[in-house]
Write a structure and sequence with these properties.
Rossmann fold, N-(1-d-carboxylethyl)-l-norvaline Dehydrogenase, domain 2, eight-stranded mixed beta sheet, 10 helices, 8 strands, 46% helix
Length: 267
Amino acid sequence: MTETLGIAGSGTIASGLAVVASAGTDVVLWARSEESQERVRAAIAKGASRHEGADPGRITVTTELADLDACSFLVEAIVEDHASKAALLADLAELTMHQNETAILSTTTSSLSVSELAEASGHPERFVGLHVFNPVPVMKLVEVVFAPATSEETRARTLALCEQLAKVAVITPDTPGFVVNRLLFPYLFDAANFMAESGLEAAAIDEAMKLGAGVPMGPLALLDYVGLDVSKAIGDSLSLETPAPMAALIAEGALGKKAGRGFYDYS
């Protein structure tokens, strides 16, 4: 079956997922406010112009959560905070109980317990973790995380959705950071600590890693791209101490590229 996607959230992951999905299905995206609605519409228009096959005409952006009621696969994509996600997932579950009891519920969390969010939804049998990577139109990987109670039908439909989105699914255990972040963030944080210890500029460290290790983006630029606040949340879930240079930037509100300043100045 072709899933119709309902996305609850209006950030970078939500808009990127909407763009990718629009190449093959209808999408309804919920934004919390009119300001967020206008911002995500602009992001979708920009993203669709760069992604072959994307059809922004198939994306409906709304501020009414009830407008997601007819979607067959609901994706929560908001701030990386358990309480906020749990509350929204409970609302989505309530919505499906009245309109579409077969709808799958999912989360894009990159660091929180999928099992705990599944229980918070009230319907763990039709719940799954769907960790897509930024930028969504470019990154092929989806880390798929099943809760203990996830049904076989939910598992099969989730893997089929990944194919529908032209993504590669890797089933991962429900452990902090899953696979990629668990291995990646100790390296990223070590780069920030090394910056403080060595006195080197961020650009020098990043250039050395790009040229010497063949990575497409240096570790400090990548932290900026992810967002220093989001990176801290992921680090906390992995019991990593926040590097002092990163903590100082966060305290100043310099959260990376989205804020115009982080390890680099984007103004």
